[in-house]
Amino acid sequence: MADRFFDNVMPDFVRETESEAGGDSLTNLLAMPYSSLSQLLKRSALDLKETVVMETWGFSGQLVQDFTLYSGALGAAFLLFRAYQVTGNANDLSLCLQIVKACDAASASSGDVTFICGRTGVFGLGAAAAKRSGDQELLNYYLAQFRQIRLSSEIPNELLYGRVGYLWACLFVNKYVGAETLPSATIRQVAQEIIQQGRSMAKNGSSPLMFEWYGERYLGAAHGLAGIMHVLMHVQLKPDEAEDVKGTLKYMIKSRFPSGNYAASEEDRRRDLLVHWCHGAPGIALTLVKAAEVFKEREFLEAAAAAAEVVWNRGLLKRVGICHGISGNAYVFLSLYRATGRSEYLYRAKAFASFLLDRAHKLLSKGDMHGGDSPYSLFEGVGGMACLFLDMVDPFQARFPGYEL
Fold it and tell me: Does 375 fall in a domain?
């Protein structure tokens, strides 16, 4: 199991100092005042952004093969949009819109409807960027395209390819364009269909809601209960629906491993193995933080903290990205810091980011760390690391891409 992650030998806490700590480069980063470290991370992020854009856009002759946010060009556009939010550089926003336009053309034949892997990601990000640029005509175009999308009755209920991923895209548009841009009645209808199907599959089971993805009942963020519950908690639910969401989350907490980690699926309960956003404690921790905010019950925050301990001990993965890498796992600590204000969580996010800043490029070049099948992408590659570094500039504005709103 240890071949999946680096042993975390970083101290549980290091006091910040204005002078160098006198240790190795990583120790010095851990002791560096946050304001200074965040500027280092920002500079590194902006350098990485240039590399990601060149590799995914410039060298391709501006031809898009993979349009998705997950592994394709839309991830570069998202990174540019995030950089614009941090720096206000209008060139980033302009280039973001150019890439979104190419993704629009490349996605024309796609039947996928989600934010992370489908066309609503293109239209949603396009609408958000057009809104920021003040281009009303382009905004109207992307919103019109979004509204033309129809959900098949056969679509599954999960985040990456299913109904929940469409629902998240609706919420993203309403956040960045304006409330009721996509009517709450539409959002309610989709949420109601998800809950009805979850109840139907859960009949005679221990959980109020249950879902399947290719025949397996997944628990994690990408395909399972955690991701579905996370998005539903952003919707105005009826009291009985909210109780079912709450009960499903409590069912998950009760079924965790003694280690505090979570199985990938109901069918995989013997393997306490994965500590990823997509499967395992990290993605579930983000959902539990949201549950604590929505339901105001301490049990959820305590369970999130327990999951975060797993991430600290086993989450220094030998991968760089946000789906199943160190960058994604760092967001657990940022989320808990926003929820609690406790400095130890900010330190742990700082520690994971510092590890990446200090060692990622060396480990990748030596082959000791995996850069992902799409090494410059947002979810698998260094695009996700750049996004994390930008989010470290202001932790209270940090959000896991395509998951936290």
Answer: yes
